[in-house]
């Protein structure tokens, strides 16, 4: 009797304690997230708005807060069609197109291919996987400098092959204004494709073996298996990989600087290089801000519809 | 709790007041002279200030280079946290002065006689609105040739006096199987060389009109076209791997004897010194052919900020020490440049330094001392960089003819003005 009584007495405070605790538990995520939320609001979205504001002023070395109209955009618009000789802005945006397209495409293809090969239950996977993944651990600066030496005709690949006797070998893309952007693609792909491989590998491991077996029983060839079943099932991985690669492509400022220091006659510039050059080196802050806004708009224009179409299908 | 807070505040305030009363014996300095020779040169100044009881405090800059330092400075000034002084170049000083954040050293300048000893062309950047806002540290000049003497003797060359002589000399080197011209294919190096080409092709008056006054007619003129033609001719003498090369690697090619000559500012001399080479015996310094008597300069300045009163004494001490004859001599011997005042004895300088000092004096008196457009002393950064774009695009073939180059130059400069 007495034990029952005590337990009943105990029940009430415990219940109220649990309700406090559960309320706290409900609130805890909000409390923990609040600082980072506030920081993001100010330092990301606040400064986006500030940059948009600056792009409509005539800011030069220092920010100026008097709105003077859209002259910065007009200049950029004019430069967009300055193709002969190419203006720095025209070079930057065409390079962005070439680099972004090839970088994302090759990384996805190569990453998927490597992942499928590694997924064949081969021996030594535990050793091979980190080897491919490791370049991602390097900073862009290291990648850039290493590839700069490797691709330099006087130091790296070409010189070595010449010493080995293959004197007709010629590979000077990094010194060539028309091809230098492709060396940026090479270095970028080298760095990121291992990481993409790891993402696909995780996806492949998540595919239910039963489906594969069922397909094999139905007489599907390996190619059909991958083409019709595995790759469609990897769709969410494609989305994540695309987002990771797209933002890496757009922010590859340091790779261009370390690898090419801008390229011959500025022919390797990306919009991020343009933005930094104009804002900080040429003291044309308004033009720099305007180019940053255009970069943001481009990203929004690509990512938002894609996210929308991908996420709408699976309402959760 | 509240009382503790109050006491704390009171203490802090009184501390602040007492600190205000006494001068801060410290110089806060933002600079990017961190590599070997430059750091050694700056140690001379640190020592001079230590003798007067001022401690030296570097303002740390992540990333090292001048661009990173300027970004850091912008942030500091925007936050109202001025360093005592900062290393600055050309129009940056004037930009900050126009923003009203620079100090006033006119009194010290009068006392020390800077008005008379510092070349007038430099005062354009160190004096704003009649007030001294910066202390020039040195004068670099860019219209120099650096020649490997052994190679020169091997090919039997002599000092080129005209542009055609120079081309003939390069031809000789080419025939002997040496790379004639060591060039780093980065836009500032190409444009620095083009500064000299324009001065050589058009003469002092033309250079001034085109690259300091930005006179439209001169920029469009046939002389400018001829200058681009001459540049194109020089570019045919570089090795195929020149694009993107750093300037000091190009200098190393001359030092090692792989190349005959480099057209570069006098900071290249520092590389020769570091390799233990002596002017006259190992290497030769000539003025760019056809530019003797004129000097295209750039200059490092210590911009002096409008610091609180308790820091002013330290600032004056820094400025005075910077422009003292002993420091000007000691520093510039190490740095490879020449003193920013024309009354410093040249006894400690090597042959090239002596020539540099004499040339500067002559150019200052004759009115042929001009700011380098490539180095940001001819026009504001927006224009200077537009100019570098055009020159670099011409060198690398995006701009194909000199006619087109001239059109683009005028357009780019107008757009940036």
From TrEMBL, chain A:
GO term, biological process aspect, one: transmembrane transport
InterPro entries: ABC_transporter_permease (IPR051393), MetI-like (IPR000515), MetI-like_sf (IPR035906)
Entries under PROSITE patterns matching the protein: ABC_TM1
UniProt-listed SUPFAM superfamilies: MetI-like
Keyword Transmembrane assigned: yes
Subcellular localization, as worded in the UniProt entry: Cell membrane
Keyword check for Transmembrane helix: yes
Sorted UniProt keywords: Cell membrane, Membrane, Transmembrane, Transmembrane helix, Transport
Signal peptide stretch: none
This protein's name: Sugar ABC transporter permease
Any single GO CC term annotated in Swiss-Prot or TrEMBL for this entry: plasma membrane
Organism of origin: Mesorhizobium jarvisii
UniProt record similarity statement: Belongs to the binding-protein-dependent transport system permease family.
TM stretches of this protein: 31-53, 96-119, 131-150, 179-204, 225-250, 285-308
Bilayer topology: Multi-pass membrane protein
UniProtKB/TrEMBL annotation, chain B:
Superkingdom, natural source: Bacteria
InterPro entries: Bact_solute-bd_prot1, SBP
Main location: periplasm
Keywords from the UniProt entry: Periplasm, Signal, Sugar transport, Transport
Transferase listed as a keyword: no
Record SUPFAM superfamilies: Periplasmic binding protein-like II
Subcellular location(s) per record: Periplasm
Leader sequence residues: none
GO cellular component terms attached to this protein's record: periplasmic space
Assigned protein family: Belongs to the bacterial solute-binding protein 1 family.
PANTHER family: ARABINOSE-BINDING PROTEIN-RELATED, BINDING PROTEIN COMPONENT OF ABC SUGAR TRANSPORTER-RELATED
Function: Part of a binding-protein-dependent transport system for a sugar.
UniProt-recorded name of the protein: Probable sugar-binding periplasmic protein
Organism name: Mesorhizobium jarvisii
């Amino acid at each position: 009797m007495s034990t029952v009584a005590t337990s009943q007495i105990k029940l009430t405070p415990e219940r109220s304690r649990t309700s406090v605790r559960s309320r706290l538990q409900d609130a805890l995520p909000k409390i923990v997230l609040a600082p980072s939320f506030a920081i993001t609001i100010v330092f990301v979205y606040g400064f986006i708005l500030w940059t948009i504001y600056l792009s409509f002023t005539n800011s030069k070395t220092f920010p100026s807060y008097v709105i003077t109209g859209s002259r910065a955009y007009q200049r950029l618009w004019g430069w967009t069609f300055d193709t002969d000789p190419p203006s720095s802005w025209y070079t930057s945006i065409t390079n962005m197109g070439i680099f972004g397209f090839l970088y994302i495409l090759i990384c996805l293809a190569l990453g998927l291919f490597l992942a499928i090969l590694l997924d064949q239950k081969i021996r030594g996977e535990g050793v091979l996987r980190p080897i491919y993944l490791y370049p991602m651990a390097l900073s862009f600066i290291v990648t850039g400098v290493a590839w700069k030496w490797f691709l330099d005709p006087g130091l790296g690949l070409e010189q070595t092959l010449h010493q080995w006797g293959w004197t007709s070998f010629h590979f000077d893309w990094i010194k060539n204004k028309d091809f230098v952007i492709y060396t940026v693609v090479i270095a970028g792909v080298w760095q990121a494709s291992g990481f993409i491989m790891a993402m696909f590998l995780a996806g492949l491991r998540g595919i239910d073996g039963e489906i594969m077996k069922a397909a094999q029983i139905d007489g599907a060839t390996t190619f059909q298996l991958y083409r019709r079943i595995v790759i469609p099932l990897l769709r969410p991985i494609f989305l994540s990989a695309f987002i990771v690669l797209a933002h890496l492509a757009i922010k590859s400022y340091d790779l261009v600087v370390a690898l090419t220091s801008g390229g011959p006659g500025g022919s390797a510039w990306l919009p991020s290089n343009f933005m930094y050059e104009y804002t900080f080196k040429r003291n044309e802050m308004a033009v720099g801000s305007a180019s940053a806004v255009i970069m943001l708009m481009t990203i929004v224009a690509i990512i938002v519809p894609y996210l929308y179409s991908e996420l709408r299908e699976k309402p959760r | 709790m509240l009382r503790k807070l109050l006491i704390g505040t009171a203490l802090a305030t009184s501390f602040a007041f007492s600190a205000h009363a006494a001068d801060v014996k410290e110089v806060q300095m933002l600079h990017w002279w961190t590599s070997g020779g430059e750091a050694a040169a700056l140690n001379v100044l640190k020592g001079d200030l230590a003798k007067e009881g001022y401690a030296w405090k570097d303002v740390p800059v992540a990333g090292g280079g001048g661009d990173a330092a300027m970004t850091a400075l912008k942030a500091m000034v925007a936050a109202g946290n001025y360093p005592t002084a900062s290393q600055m170049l050309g129009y940056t000083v004037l930009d900050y002065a126009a923003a009203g954040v620079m100090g006033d050293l006119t009194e010290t300048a009068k006392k020390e006689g800077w008005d008379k000893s510092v070349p007038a062309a430099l005062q354009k950047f160190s004096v704003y609105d009649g007030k001294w806002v910066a202390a020039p540290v040195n004068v670099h000049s860019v219209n120099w040739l650096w020649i490997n003497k052994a190679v020169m003797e091997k090919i039997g060359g002599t000092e080129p006096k005209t542009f055609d002589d120079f081309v003939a000399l390069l031809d000789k080197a080419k025939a002997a199987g040496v790379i004639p011209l060591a060039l780093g294919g980065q836009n500032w190096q190409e444009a620095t060389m083009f500064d000299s080409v324009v001065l050589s092709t058009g003469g002092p008056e033309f250079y001034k009109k085109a690259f300091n006054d930005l006179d439209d007619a001169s920029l469009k003129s046939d002389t400018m076209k001829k200058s681009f033609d001459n540049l194109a001719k020089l570019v045919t003498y570089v090795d195929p791997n020149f694009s993107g090369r750093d300037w000091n690697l190009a200098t190393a090619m001359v030092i090692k004897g792989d190349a005959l000559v480099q057209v570069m500012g006098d900071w290249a001399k520092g590389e020769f010194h570091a390799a233990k080479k002596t002017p006259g015996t190992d290497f030769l310094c000539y003025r760019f052919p056809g530019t003797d008597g004129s000097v295209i300069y750039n200059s490092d300045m210590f911009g002096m900020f409008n610091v609180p009163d308790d820091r002013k004494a330290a600032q004056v001490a820094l400025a005075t020490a910077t422009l003292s004859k002993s420091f000007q001599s000691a520093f510039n011997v190490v740095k490879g440049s020449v003193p920013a005042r024309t009354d410093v004895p040249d006894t400690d300088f090597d042959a090239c330094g002596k020539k540099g000092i004499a040339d500067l004096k002559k150019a200052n008196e004759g009115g042929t001392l001009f700011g380098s457009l490539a180095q940001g002393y001819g026009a504001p950064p927006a224009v200077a960089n537009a100019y570098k774009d055009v020159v670099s695009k011409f060198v690398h073939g995006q701009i194909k003819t000199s006619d087109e180059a001239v059109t683009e130059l005028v357009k780019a400069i107008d757009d940036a003005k």
